[in-house]
Specification:
Layout lengths: L4 H4 L1 H12 L15 E21 L2 E21 L4 E12 L8 E14 L1 E4 L5 E20 L5 E20 L4 E21 L4 E8 L2 E11 L4 E14 L2 E2 L3 E3 L2 E2 L3 E19 L1
Antiparallel strand pairs: 1-2, 1-15, 2-3, 3-4, 4-6, 5-6, 6-7, 7-8, 8-9, 8-10, 9-13, 10-11, 11-15, 12-15, 13-14
């Protein structure tokens, strides 16, 4: 999932606020090279997750649902060129989940994303402007699960959600230091790859399927004159998998029939962020 969209846009706000305040732009100085702006941001997203899953096999169908809490700490980096084209990268290391219904289960998740973007300042009724920032990139979210059954067998399952995403940020400066940011991200080409292993019962294999994803976020931020930015927002993330055939998985040498999923997962929670633009 793509993160960091809410606060990382601080790099362009300082430049665009000249339209809001009415301050005249400084005279051009051809002796000075155009400046590249860089923004480093730390984001905390304590997400709550809900999910639904269905398992269909030769002997029937099982349905289940559950909830958990998964805090993400994300390091976000943005580079903006004088031509308003930039590069964005974020990384969230594996973090453990809490609130699992089964005490024998453990879950962790991590992520990374990389994209390019363009900053477009659109004049509204003077002196107001809105900054529109389309972007496109590639990202991966990794989720690892393990559980020990009542018979003492360890079962591990890992899922990788990956794909190309498209989206846009919209930044509305309210004054010289305050602004609102909204963001939407869609994954038109994304997949979920499942890997399952239970050596105690001879179960192993992997399978993949299409996995559409979306991210929406909104934030209210304050930026100091020294380009420190503090932000409070809220973010929603969802992913759905229509069905994963189990014909590629085996148990004790025999092919498993049926399918895993449809599955749906939704993550949501407040976001807190601090960033610095150089």
């Amino acid at each position: 999932m793509r993160q960091g969209a809410v606060l990382g846009v601080a790099a362009v706000v300082a430049v665009s606020l000249v339209y809001v305040t009415g301050a005249p732009p400084a005279a051009a100085d051809d002796s000075q090279p155009a400046k590249i702006q860089q923004t480093v941001t730390i984001i905390y997203w304590p997400a709550n997750a809900t999910g639904q899953v269905q398992f269909s096999a030769n002997r029937g169908t099982l349905n289940g649902n559950g909830t958990l809490s998964l805090p993400f700490w994300i390091l976000d980096y943005r580079l903006t060129t004088p031509w308003n084209v930039g590069f964005h990268l974020d990384y969230g290391p594996y973090e453990p989940a809490s609130g699992l219904a089964n005490p024998a289960q453990s879950t962790s998740a991590g992520l990374w994303n990389a994209d390019v973007f363009y900053n477009w300042t659109i004049p509204l009724k003077p002196p107001a402007v809105i900054i529109f920032e389309p972007f496109a990139g590639y990202g991966e979210t990794h989720v690892n699960n393990s559980v020990t059954t009542a018979l003492g067998n360890l079962v591990t399952e890992s899922t990788v959600y990956s794909g190309i995403y498209l989206g846009a940020n919209a930044i509305l400066p309210l004054s010289e230091h305050f602004f609102i940011v909204g963001s939407g991200t869609w994954y038109p080409w994304s997949n979920a790859t499942f890997n399952l292993n239970a050596p105690g019962v001879g179960l192993s294999g992997s399978a993949s399927a299409s996995a559409p994803q979306y991210i929406y976020s909104v934030s209210f931020a304050y930026q100091t004159s020294s380009l420190w930015t503090f932000s409070l927002g809220y973010e929603w993330y969802g992913v759905s998998v229509s069905g994963v055939p189990l014909s590629t998985m085996t148990a004790r040498g025999e092919t498993i029939g049926g399918a895993f999923c449809p599955c749906n997962s939704q993550f949501s929670g407040p976001t807190f962020a601090v960033g610095k633009t150089f």
